[in-house]
Amino acid sequence: MEKADKIKILQDLVSINTVNGNELAVATYLQQVFAEHGIKATIDEFGDKRANLQAEIGSKNADQKVLVFSGHQDTVSIDDESAWEQPPFGAQIIGDKLYGRGAADMKSGLAAEVIALIELAENPAIELNGTLRFIATAGEEFGTPGAYRLNEQHAIDDADALVIGEPTDGQIIFAHSGSFNYRITSRGQAAHSSRPAQGINAIQGLVNYINLEKDLFTDTPEDPYLGRVQHSITVIHGGEQVNTIPATAELLGNIRPTQAFDNQQVIARIEAAVAELNQQYDAQLSLEIIHNFEPVETASDNGFIQIVKQVAQETFTDRQVDLLTMNGATDASVFVKNNPGLPTVILGADGDKSSHQLNEYTTISSYLALIEIYQKIAREFLQ
């Protein structure tokens, strides 16, 4: 494929507005791109213009390996469009930078994976000894409905390795924490503020929890790669009127589980704290789990990790490629529920620090290099 065509595919993807949805438009576009190159891609639409897409090349013998390239089609919001220096869906190129919402996170990775499949399929000198599967997901930025649907369909169960194309500035992420979002609701008894003893202040119930939560995870073991569990109270709602004792109040919290102290241990710790407080105080607390994403961790000396590091360093000649960890979460957090221990890397183009920001961008040079890297990974792993 010509360089100009590769750039156009990325520009076309960035120009499609997929802010928290509308993935069907991207899936339809990519299906057409694949079809133009003789590759069948299947769209799984599941309402309200949400859709996943799958395509694969290579051989399908049961005793051969399966490598999955995956990326999400949605983006976060653009915030104040007038504050952008370049149109958020304009996909404008200035020098080596291509600007737009999703340019980094993660339509550059998505396009690079697509083109890698196409070029591998069209190269008569290459015969993959196994299956290379491409999966484009819906809703990674909020709730991961696409990844959960793929798990229900067992789309990742047979995978032997996984590459997620999130932006990493060419660095290799071999482990990332989980992400656990939860709600604590406190229920008391309303009363006039002039007679507080007749009521039960629901806000005080939250205060009791907050005081306990600050030290709730101090004794947890330190993960060798991800460190200690990170935890925060991030949202509080309570009270409707200044002269009324509030009957209900709630808070939201986020916790980053690790392999050393995983999601089930986090849940058990919070449940125990809630039970303890409910015995001690009148305001009664309840726990609701909102999102529950698993940590993802592959040993840094794993053979697949070493393949990725070697080919990435060979190709990214302008930088040192390192093995790193991060505290974010990806679709891999869902996929590993069905395939525990799946060797996983996150590797993508430039622009990581501009993700979710105004004037998001990636670089053309890193995007083109990424296409080459993805092909090399497939050739090495499926040889």
From TrEMBL:
Keyword Hydrolase: yes
Gene3D superfamilies recorded: 3.30.70.360, Zn peptidases
UniProt cross-references to SUPFAM superfamilies, sorted A to Z: Bacterial exopeptidase dimerisation domain, Zn-dependent exopeptidases
The enzyme's E.C. designation: 3.5.1.18
Listed transmembrane segments: none
Cited Pfam families: M20_dimer, Peptidase_M20
InterPro entries: ArgE/DapE, ArgE/DapE_CS, Bact_exopeptidase_dim_dom, Peptidase_M20, Peptidase_M20_dimer, Peptidase_M20A
BP-aspect Gene Ontology terms: diaminopimelate biosynthetic process; lysine biosynthetic process
Keywords: Amino-acid biosynthesis, Cobalt, Diaminopimelate biosynthesis, Hydrolase, Lysine biosynthesis, Metal-binding, Zinc
CDD domains reported for this sequence: M20_ArgE_DapE-like
Annotated catalysed reactions: N-succinyl-(2S,6S)-2,6-diaminopimelate + H2O = (2S,6S)-2,6-diaminopimelate + succinate
Cofactor names: Zn(2+); Co(2+)
Zinc listed as a keyword: yes
GO MF term (any one): succinyl-diaminopimelate desuccinylase activity
Pathway per the UniProt entry: Amino-acid biosynthesis; L-lysine biosynthesis via DAP pathway; LL-2,6-diaminopimelate from (S)-tetrahydrodipicolinate (succinylase route): step 3/3
Domain spans labelled Peptidase M20 dimerisation: 175-281
Family classification: Belongs to the peptidase M20A family.
Protein known as: Probable succinyl-diaminopimelate desuccinylase
Organism of provenance: Weissella paramesenteroides (Leuconostoc paramesenteroides)
Phylogenetic lineage: Bacteria, Bacillati, Bacillota, Bacilli, Lactobacillales
